[in-house]
# Entry
Amino acid sequence: MTALPPFAARFQDVEVTFPRSWTAGANGTAYRVPGSTALDGVTCDVPAGQITGLLGRNGAGKSTMLGLLAAFRRPTGGTVLTGPDGDLRDPWEDAALTSAILLVQESGDVFHDQKVAATLAYYADLRPEWDAGYAEELLDLFEVPLRTKPSALSRGKKSALAATLGLAARAPLTIFDEVYLGMDTPTRFAFYDALLADYAEHPRTIVLSSHLVEETERLFEHVVLVDRGRVVFAEPAEELRSRASSLTGPTAVVEDLAAGHEVLHRQHLGPTTRITVNGALSDDDARAAAAAGATIGHEGLESLFVHLTRTSREAPATRVPDTDRAPARKEELR
Ligand SMILES: Nc1ncnc2c1ncn2[C@@H]1O[C@H](COP(=O)(O)OP(=O)(O)OP(=O)(O)O)[C@@H](O)[C@H]1O
# Structure
C-alpha cells in the first residue's frame, strides 16, 4: 500500500458541551452531573508534517480536542476537518481517514489479558505502515517483555507500550494524549529522543498534548495553547520562544522600561523588581536597560504558559511601588 502523506487538521469555531446527566455513586445512589462546556469557539490549525504541541492545564480541553481529531466524538458546534493538506474533510465515520489517524492514550489500546505479542500482531494487521522490527526495538529499549500481559505491567511500562504502538504504527496523523505520564524521567527522555529520530526518518504529523512544557518544548515546531476551552495562541514554536522577555533591576527603572508593554508578571524582591512582558524588546530597550543598570532576559515557553493561564487565586500578591509606573494591566491582577 502506498504511504499516505502527512495529514493537516483544522478546528473552525468548535464547541463541545456536555449536557447535565445522572450517574450512580459508589453506594448506588443516583446523583446529577452538571453540564459543562469543554470547548468554546476553538479555531486553530494543525500543520501537516510538523510536530504540534497542544498545551493546557488540567481540564483545559486538550483531550476533548484530540478526541475530535481522531473522530472519537463530534463537536456540538463548528467543524473539525482533517486529511492530506488541501483535501481536508470531516473525519466522522470516514473509514479511509480514521484508519490513517492514531490516538494514543496513556495505557494504550491493547489486549489487556493477552501477551503483548498479541497486541503487536493486531496492530500489524490494522496499520499499513506498521514496522514490526522497530516495535520490537522500542520494546527492548523500554524493557517491556513481549510475553507478559499488559494487565501485569507497571504503569510506566504500560505507557511505554502505548508509546511504542504510536511510534511503530507511523500513522499520517499520530496523536499522543499525555502518553508519557506514567513514565519515569529517563524513559520519558528516551521516548522524546525516539520520537524525534523516527520523525526525521519518517515525516508525518504528530500532535502531542502536554503540561510538562519545559521538557517537551524542544520537540515542537508548532504550539497551540488552550485555556478553559479557548485557544490562547496557535503559532510556530520559533516565534513563541522569543515572545516573552524579562526586565530585572531597580524598581523605578524596570517600571519605566516596561511602560507600553503588556505586563504578564511582576515580582518584587526588596528594591529589585522583575517584570515579564509579552513580546520581544527592541535594541533601543536593551541599550536603555544596560545604561540604567537593568538586565533583559528571554523567557521560555513555560513562562508564557504559566503566566497566560494563571488564575486570580494563583497570582501572587503584587505590591504597587510608589514610583511612577506603567498602568496595571488586568493580566497581573487576575
Ligand atoms: N464526559 C464528560 N462529561 C462532562 N464533562 C466532561 C466530560 N469530558 C470532559 N469534560 C469536561 O470538559 C473539560 C475539558 O476536559 P478535557 O479532558 O478535555 O481536559 P484536559 O485538558 O485533557 O485535562 P487533563 O490535562 O486534566 O487531562 C473539563 O472541564 C472536563 O471536566
